[in-house]
Every structure is written in structure tokens, then in C-alpha cells.
């Protein structure tokens, strides 16, 4: 038969076991709380990253989805302002009769290649922006292009707006006869200036320039200008064409 002291000792040990168990349970709850907090933080961060990536993807695919963002700029030479149509067609071709001081050409633009750039061309041609504008640059070394589209003839002019590039996806992005849009080397600086590759430009360029179409007749006009050479005012094989050429008019056929 237990004594009073034995009963008190047993009760004390039981209390200690209960307190220890409570502490263990409390510790487990603290660990669970910390774990859930960490998981929650990871989920929040992951969700934030997903949103950023999704938005970036949406922006990068804006042109492909037919959404064009024309942004006003300071490089305006009496331009007509940005196109009002910001959701242009993404298929179909435009044939243009190009009259120059050195002979006639035909351009065929393909909306599927760069919908926003071709939409801008359509707008600028309709408003006669390109009429009476000189081709201000000729390169004759590794890169062989004639650059036009700046009514000032300085290489710094534009239509008063700019927009994002629509890089070509073909393995041979700029074959001979290609027409592509020039830019300043920074994203979103495409305007009215364009260049014609009188030889393939694929090996000399990256894919940062919107391909809009090709010269379907009259490429010999560009070759004639190229054969006369450049004045090397920008360096060896790069400058104004020695044989001046001016776009008199561009009209839809």
C-alpha cells in the first residue's frame, strides 16, 4: 500500500510528463507554422514570377497577336502621325510601284512577316510620306544595303512615331532582295527607315530588324547605285551613294 509521499511523487512525475508533452506539442505547432509560412512565401514568389513572365510573354507576342503599339517620338518630318489601326491584318500582300530618279521598282510587302511594320508602310504610303525622299546610305563592304525612308536624307529622321521590332524566324532571314526596317540598335526604335539587301544580308546581320517583304522587280536599279560606290563618309564602304537616288513616289498597285 502506497504512502502519501509515494502518491505525491507519482503525481509530480505525471505532471512533469504532461508538461513535457505539452512543450513537445507546442514545438511541433511552431515548426508547422514556420513551414506553412515558408511554403506560403514560396507560393507568393512563384505566383509573382509567373505573372511577370506571363506579362512579358504577352508583350513580346503583342505584334504576333495583331496588337501594335505605336509610340510618339520626336523624329517627325511633317509625318502624318501614327496609324490609327492598331490591330491590322496578319495575312495578305501589298504590291507597291516605286518610282525613283534611277529607275522603277516593285516592292511586295507580306503582312504575315511583320504585321505592324507592314501596317505602318501602308499608312505612310497612303499619306505620301515617302515621296521625294533620298536614299541616304549605301554600304558596300560585308553588309550590302541601300538605306532609304528618311525624308531629311540625314539618317536621323522618322515619321514621328516608333514601334517594336518583329524579328524574322526563317533560317535565312534576309536573302538577296529583302526589304527590312532599320532601327537605332535599341528595342522599339523602328520607324520609317528601311534598307534593301542587294546581296544576302543574312550572314552580316542578326535578326533584330523587321523583314517586311522583297523587291520583286527593279533590283538592278539598286545594283546600279551600289556599283557606283559610296562616298565613305561613315567609314570605308559606308556613306552616301555616289550615284544619288531619290524615291519620287510610292503607290499601291
Automatic annotation (TrEMBL):
Keywords on record: Isomerase, Membrane, Transmembrane, Transmembrane helix
Source taxon at top rank: Bacteria
* Transmembrane spans: 34-53
Gene Ontology terms for molecular function: peptidyl-prolyl cis-trans isomerase activity
- Which positions fall inside the PPIase cyclophilin-type domain? 103-252
Instruction: Tell me if NAD is a UniProt keyword of this record.
Output: no
A matching Pfam family: Pro_isomerase
Ranges where the record places region Disordered: 228-253
Role: PPIases accelerate the folding of proteins. It catalyzes the cis-trans isomerization of proline imidic peptide bonds in oligopeptides.
Q: What is this protein called?
A: Peptidyl-prolyl cis-trans isomerase B (Cyclophilin B)
Q: Source organism lineage?
A: Bacteria, Bacillati, Actinomycetota, Actinomycetes, Geodermatophilales
Amino acid at each position: 500500500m502506497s504512502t502519501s509521499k509515494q502518491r505525491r511523487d507519482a503525481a509530480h512525475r505525471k505532471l512533469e510528463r504532461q508538461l513535457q508533452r505539452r512543450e513537445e506539442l507546442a514545438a511541433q505547432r511552431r515548426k508547422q507554422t514556420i513551414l506553412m509560412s515558408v511554403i506560403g512565401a514560396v507560393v507568393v514568389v512563384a505566383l509573382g514570377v509567373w505573372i511577370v513572365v506571363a506579362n512579358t510573354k504577352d508583350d513580346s507576342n503583342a505584334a504576333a497577336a495583331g496588337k501594335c503599339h505605336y509610340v510618339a517620338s520626336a523624329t517627325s518630318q511633317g509625318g502624318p502621325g501614327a496609324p490609327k489601326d492598331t490591330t491590322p491584318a496578319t495575312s495578305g500582300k501589298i504590291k507597291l510601284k516605286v518610282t525613283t530618279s534611277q529607275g522603277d521598282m516593285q516592292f511586295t510587302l507580306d503582312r504575315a512577316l511583320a504585321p505592324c511594320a507592314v501596317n505602318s508602310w501602308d499608312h505612310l504610303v497612303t499619306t505620301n510620306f515617302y515621296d521625294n525622299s533620298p536614299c541616304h546610305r549605301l554600304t558596300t563592304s560585308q553588309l550590302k544595303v541601300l538605306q532609304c525612308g528618311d525624308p531629311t536624307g540625314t539618317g536621323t529622321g522618322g515619321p514621328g512615331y516608333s514601334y517594336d521590332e518583329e524579328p524574322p524566324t526563317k533560317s535565312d532571314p534576309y536573302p538577296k532582295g529583302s526589304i527590312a526596317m532599320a532601327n537605332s540598335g535599341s528595342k522599339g526604335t523602328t520607324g520609317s527607315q528601311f534598307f534593301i539587301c542587294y546581296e544576302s544580308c543574312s550572314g552580316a546581320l542578326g535578326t533584330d530588324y523587321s523583314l517586311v517583304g522583297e523587291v520583286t522587280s527593279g533590283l538592278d536599279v539598286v545594283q546600279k547605285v551600289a556599283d557606283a560606290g559610296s562616298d565613305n563618309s561613315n567609314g570605308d564602304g559606308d556613306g552616301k551613294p555616289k550615284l544619288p537616288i531619290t524615291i519620287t513616289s510610292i503607290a499601291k498597285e
